[in-house]
């Protein structure tokens, strides 16, 4: 029953948030060497772009103004590409606890000089009581942030700096016209074909399951590309085409 209820929310969110909203890039802390920024894009999925110091832990919490128990947070807790406990929650004024269900999918984790940039995606609502529910409407959000006090250490000890920032969402403008993106057959079985009206550079197709987990990613090198789906389970997915011209999404059903 929980899965069916969440699937209904997933589909409703897809159609109600077709335009999308964004906070734009928010400066959380501008101290040299430990600067932090965040950008939250809400469309069919939530996309978080988070930057922070490359030589220590840093964290971001959603919908809170202090370390309130139950606050949903994400934490860069290791100097590795994979962050198996990125999704966490607070139990009070102590180190955040790893969420048993990791709903964020990290699509990129790179370091340039002293700055680490993490890009992650998630469903607006995961059905997990430890996770913040992002609205499909452009409601303001309060963010808490912190970073470690010790360089070259990822142990979640007392913070070196922390703060609270309020962010507003504005209407997104990077969606291209959906008629430029055709997908068939739908429902599909072993494959689906993606057609673009024009070949755009750096075009990528990303397929997410109903929990917002990235399950397939491929580059599109022609205006018509056949994407194999035989290794995916039956169900409902979001197919997103991301290119230099913008992005667009459609619902795909595999049966």
Automatic annotation (TrEMBL):
Can the keyword Transcription regulation be found in this entry's annotation? no
CDD domains referenced in this protein's UniProt entry, alphabetically: DOMON_DOH
Annotated DOMON domain residues = 30-148
What highest taxon heads this organism's lineage? Bacteria
Q: Tell me where the signal peptide lies.
A: 1-18
UniProtKB keywords: Signal
- This protein is called what? Putative secreted protein (Por secretion system target)
List the source organism.
Flavobacterium cheniae
NCBIfam families per UniProt:
Por_Secre_tail
Q: Does the keyword Zinc-finger apply?
A: no
